[in-house]
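Design review, sub-item: ligand-bound model
Attendees: FS, YL, KQ
YL presented the inputs for the 3-phosphoglyceric acid complex:
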Amino acid sequence: MNVLVATEKPFAAAAVNGIREIVEGAGHTLSLLEKYTEKEQLLKAVADADALIVRSDKVTAEVVAAAPNLKIVVRAGAGFDNLDLEACSAARIVAMNTPGQNSNAVAELAIAMMIYMSRGQFTPATGCEIQGKKVGIQAFGNVGRLVGRKAEAMGMSVMAIDPFIPAEKIKEMGAEPAASLEDLYSKCDFVSVHIPATPETIGSIGYDLVSKMPKGGVLVNTARKEVIDEEGLLKALTERPDLKYVTDIAPDRIAEFQEKCALRFFATPKKMGAQTAEANINAGLAAARQICGFFADGCTKFQLNKF
Ligand code: 3PG
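KQ shared the predicted structure:
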């Protein structure tokens, strides 16, 4: 089988070497399409692929149509909003992710972003410490729980909310459950966002929630830009010159955020939450193993679609 790794943002070399070892060791061949800039390059590369490993690369209906041999696609990472699951199902292509494999890298970045903003983006201005502050974790999954544990170790108190985890369980996991999103935003000095981009969550964080934050509140987004209502967030940040926004995914209206918020806003130049050698190796190798397992014995653990 021909396994294609198509990554606009490439994996670390060690991850690619590991993927090759697993794929070739199982008797398959490996093709690489890295740092591509045009959709056409991806469409051409998938033409003879039996399996596909991607990161945030978009696997659209057009990509699926260009890949007549494709049997499995694995998103090496957690969020799978870049996969058109309907198109995959219609073509009987198994779609998977590799949950948890890059969570630590993202959690470390969320903590780093809290400190970066508390210290005025490392300018000499007098900042504040995160110890003694309260962080609210919006979605207590793999990344959110790690952020909570690291925050606690740094002397912060941790509040959390998750639509799929009952309050009792959140308590057992060591965090104070929030009664509602309003409760979380109104009580936390930092809110760290870990929700996926779904029809329910897109545009769900805006003026109403952010303007409830206490004085000096910092919103930290290492999830997806789509979950933010940019208009509402800009309004909250303009009305409240004490609030800050730090994000791993540049907003569409980045110029306005930069102009209106100066040192109260920061966006990484390119999504870098999972951009560590460790996360690349964990997620990339897991993807390769999942593909080999699927071809060897039909294992569909972590399958996201049904058909
Ligand atoms: C994920 O959903 O796993 C993260 O957002 C990482 O995305 P990336 O592979 O594009 O870095």
